[in-house]
UniProtKB/TrEMBL annotation, chains B, C:
The keyword Transport applies. It comes from Borborobacter arsenicus. Its EC number is 7.6.2.11. One of its GO terms (molecular function) is ATP hydrolysis activity. This is Spermidine/putrescine import ATP-binding protein PotA. Gene3D superfamilies: P-loop containing nucleotide triphosphate hydrolases.
Length: 273, 379, 379, 273
């Protein structure tokens, strides 16, 4: 134990120091030492607010798409045999294995106006479905890239739900659909919340996908931060933007954890023994 | 007690299983089970794990579909009904309480499915919790309750909607010894109070003997014997039944010309059997005697005429508290155990030569043993 | 059998605990425990969970540091030694086999720590596995073995380095009933074969009575009584010891002027006590009688002079297979249970008026009850 | 079940289709239909091989750093009380919460020649420690960013190791250090392998950190892929590069899973019951 204390301190510094540095940057200014001017700039520039809102809206839609696609996927994993489960798990993990770069590239190729998807939608009479350079395209690509972060925590929760509870509910007179809604769904909530939180927060910080697939007209906050650092060379502005993003994120996480704490604690005894 | 007025009005119904089979691929889990529980009866399915007793219970509840055979409740066929339409109460082995609901909500669940009104639900749930002695814990969550209390909530939930048949799958398996004995009495009390039919699954022979009106002994997917506790314990019909239900001594015997008399294999000592015994076909058979039916006495004393006797040497005396067990070697291949209740010990000790005696009526003649009952290497 | 030559040469040593205490903050886990195990003795620490028996065992093994007191092995103090220098064998409750090692490697582990040569390790490991009947499973991993086999590997691992003291922490708790009884015999056999000192922890009174040379009964961190099986079962010194060790009837009694005679509280019926009994100070006391020492007979029959008798009504008769229990109500606040071995039943049935009789020598006089033993609401 | 089959198929397509597209791209050429010319180009261009090797070396060093830092961290989490464990878990998760962008920014700020770290090393007499624009700087920043991916699977494994096995080993005569090495370490191997694999594979595909903190002179494969698409507009080359990266990754994962399968299966029974 005594030996481990310094290790712990080192690690704490390793994790916390970079954050402290950003915090310091955001309160610095070119002229005086400590100032709020970066934050004042952030909230007075209307395009910042617009981009912030667009960033959150995008993240929310991506999260929703991931929940809708990920829940049945994770559920499927709990009911199939071990061979199929292994296959599904590998499929869900492939995005981890292939680099982010490769996947963005794949989506870029897929969303070209000449691509198969565009051809199909045209043939089906949906007219020109413009995906490349639009928020819709960014959402589709981000959802696929982030899906594993939704599926894995969901699966971890669903796997631990005792399926005998469903049998018990049916034995007590509940139709299978009612048993699912009244028993299974509430018990899966912690997994849904954990996955959603993860996907939401990761979406907020996405840079590569919106930069490659989106267009400058509908850029997200990460792109603005990069612009501040690499083109405008304004570290203070970039720091303030990062802090605002972080602060909003932390508040959201805190709210979500408050809402689920009671639920999660109760559910622990519902796990298979 | 006045809860009886509300809860017990509906009395038990008859359950009939006819030629019930369940196969999983090549594996036969349950094989031609015929069984009837009378209205209000406490019927126990007893057997080791894998003997098909739980599969049978799940077929009654509707969780497992029989491969063939019929299940009738109160004279009506229920095979085609899904579980939620059978109206049968069930208590699961690990309780299967809903962890996100309080005790009250758990017990209210079946009533809500039946669209009862809020006031009625409230009355009946509290009544059911009162019946199992948990009226004061209505708003606790399962994880806040002890194992025994969870067991009681599961019981209340299974009876609150007044089913006419209650199934219980090893409900006391997870509890420790003292609590288990206490819950046995509680379950018996509730059975008497409600008057509904109970089908109870257990692998614990003591539990089966103590609680049941009748016991059905399962082995390898088949029923070996059905009868009252004393039927199956004192008059087992198979070696498996004899050995699963408690300690027993078995002697290999060969037939003789005289009816009602066999000789111990390899010893040529005659053994008198109960008068109405029919020797089975074939050369050999096994005589089973319970250890508590044997008497040990110092060798050479006079014995009452008409009793059986074998002479041996005491190998070991094991003190059991309320009794002691005297292990006697009659011959290198014949070992007998005598159980003597505390306060009634014979004056024999380790190393003594003894005569083991018993009444002919206490012998049970069964088929020849084909395989050893306990293979020590497999333990 | 010839393994005895190799393994059993070293005989057991004496273990002495003196005024052993263990506190965790305000909580006292073990309080002034004095206990001695003689060389080669089989000593059992018996008690409910939380009674301090496992903490005591862990202090002997060195996993828990005593708050005060002394532990001596073979006359030498071992308190200051870390576990790996105590050279004590231990079998853990859940076996604690190393899952990444085969049975052979598990058993070889303690020998490797002692820098034995490869050939010697091989011989001794195979010998130890042979002793526990697992010579053919040396290259199986723990997960490939059944519970009973894992238990045997754990045992082999604990004795292979020839410790002079073997500690066992509820080693049979995870096994089912039949296997448990079989393993009890195996452990006794190994105890006899090795001749080393065993300290065995269990909460199962049957196990304790059957296996031990002596039993120490733990309750709330203290030892209530130490003695042979029949000492503690037949002559309990506290109410807790009487009730924990098996079923017992207890009667509240009041002192009288006559020595050796008390009266049942509220009934004014005299109860004869064993001749050497001293009434304790204070007004009241409790008389404890085991159910198998009571005799039930139809009311009004003549009884032998000098025995005690109480009249009551049979409330319930419970069939137990090898015996039956007759529950009798003597008065609304006095209930007695009589245990009658199979084949020796009295001719009484439910509802009959009966006389309950017993020899004065079977009464045990103990302190007055202060709190009820089983509170049903807590179950 | 019947209802879930189409969902499964859709998801399969969702995961597999983008990959198939990249595969097709890599075998396409401007002139003829199917050709190997992109792969020939890849292996004939010496700078590609050099960058590929640099990418793998960097990933390996990052993985090593993460193992060395992550193991004590995860171990610490298993021995402390619940409060400390929660704190350590939150600290380990902070990088998930803060966007990738923010963290890269933090490291960029930290590694400036005028920053505190540089000042400290200068004062300590290590001379000018050049981190920005070097592989060393990239390794430090990537290690911190990827540490959670090492700590979490490790913790999941370590948490399930039955500590009574250590007591048993000591009771059998092993010194505490020997008990750790002979019992704890082997049982923790599956977690180390899982974490290492994850970190290694994620490092391979990193783009943002090397792009921001590294320099063009020591760029990694992801950067080369971006260059091919965005500047040279050669989709075939980019596809071939992505496929080579993917193939090597899959082979490595396969080898690792072969090596640990036996071990992992055996360890399952070592978990606390």
């Amino acid at each position: 134990m005594a030996l481990l204390a310094p290790v712990g301190l080192f690690l704490l510094a390793f994790f916390a120091y970079p954050m402290a540095k950003i915090l310091a940057l955001s309160f610095s200014s070119e002229a005086s030492g400590l100032s709020l001017e970066n934050y004042v700039w952030f909230f007075e520039t209307s395009v910042n607010i617009k981009v912030l809102l667009r960033t959150f809206t995008t993240a929310m839609i991506v999260t929703l798409v991931c929940v809708l696609v990920g829940y049945p996927y994770a559920y499927l994993m709990t009911v199939v045999g071990t061979r199929w489960r292994a296959l599904l798990l590998i499929l869900a993990l492939i995005p981890f294995w292939t680099s982010l770069m490769t996947r963005n590239l794949a989506w870029l190729a897929l969303l070209q106006p000449s691509s198969t998807i565009a051809t199909i939608t045209r043939k089906l009479g949906f007219g020109e479905l413009q995906l490349l350079g639009t928020v819709a395209g960014v959402v589709v690509a981000m959802s696929q890239i982030l899906l594993p972060f939704m599926v894995l925590p969901m699966y971890a929760t669903l796997r631990n739900i005792d399926r005998r509870l469903l049998a018990a509910a049916e034995g007590l007179g509940a139709r299978p659909s009612v048993a699912f809604v009244r028993v299974y769904l509430p018990l899966s909530a912690p997994g849904v919340v954990a996955g959603s939180l993860l996907v939401f927060v990761l979406s907020l910080g996405f840079y590569l996908t919106p930069a490659i697939i989106g267009s400058p007209q509908n850029s997200l906050l990460s792109q603005l931060i990069v612009t501040q650092v690499s083109r405008v060379l304004n570290w203070g502005h970039a720091g303030a933007m990062a802090m605002v993003l972080l602060l909003v994120t932390v508040v959201l996480i805190w709210l979500a954890s408050l809402a689920t704490r009671r639920n999660a604690a109760l559910t622990s005894s519902g796990e298979r023994s | 007690m006045d809860s009886r007025l509300h809860m017990g009005i509906r009395s038990g119904v008859a359950l009939e299983l006819e030629a019930l089979h369940k196969r999983y691929g090549d594996y036969v889990a349950v094989e031609s089970v015929d069984l009837r529980a009378d209205p209000g009866e406490f019927l126990t399915l007893l057997g080791p794990s894998g003997s098909g007793k739980t599969t049978t219970l799940n077929m009654i509840a509707g969780f497992v579909t029989p491969s063939s055979g019929r299940i009738q409740l109160d004279g009506g066929k229920i095979d085609h009904l899904p579980p939620h339409k059978r109206n049968i109460g069930m208590v699961f082995q690990h309780y299967a309480l809903f962890p996100h609901m309080t005790a009250f909500e758990n017990v209210a669940f079946p009533l809500k499915q039946r669209k009862c009104g809020g006031a009625e639900i409230r009355t009946r749930v509290l009544e059911a919790l009162e019946l199992v002695g948990l009226g004061d814990r209505a708003h606790s969550y399962p994880r806040q309750l002890s194992g025994g209390q969870q067991q009681r909530v599961a019981l209340a939930r299974a009876i609150v909607f007044r089913p006419s048949l209650l199934l219980m799958d090893e409900p006391l398996g997870a509890l420790d010894r003292q609590l288990r004995e206490h819950m046995q009495m509680e379950i018996k009390r509730i059975h008497v109070e409600l008057g509904i039919t109970f089908v109870y699954v257990t692998h614990d022979q003591e539990e089966a003997l103590t609680m049941s009106d009748r016991v059905a002994i399962f082995n390898n997917g088949r029923i070996e014997q059905v009868g009252t506790a004393s039927d199956v314990y004192d008059r087992p019909r198979t070696l498996f039944a004899a050995e699963f239900l408690g300690e027993s001594n078995s002697l290999s015997v060969a037939r003789t010309c005289q009816p009602g008399i066999a000789v111990v294999a390899g010893l040529d000592v005659p053994v008198r059997l109960p008068e109405d015994t029919q020797m089975p076909a074939g050369d050999g058979a096994t005589v089973v005697i319970r250890p508590e039916r044997l008497r040990a006495m110092p060798a050479g004393l006079e014995r009452s005429p008409g009793t059986n006797a074998l002479r041996g040497v005491v190998q070991r005396v094991v003190y059991l508290g309320s009794a002691r067990r005297v292990d006697v070697e009659v011959s290198p291949w014949i070992h007998l155990s005598v159980r003597e209740q505390s306060g009634m010990w014979s004056p024999v000790q380790k190393g003594d030569a003894v005569d083991i005696g018993w009444h002919p009526g206490d012998s049970v003649l069964l088929e020849q043993r084909t395989a050893p009952a306990i293979v020590t290497g497999a333990a």
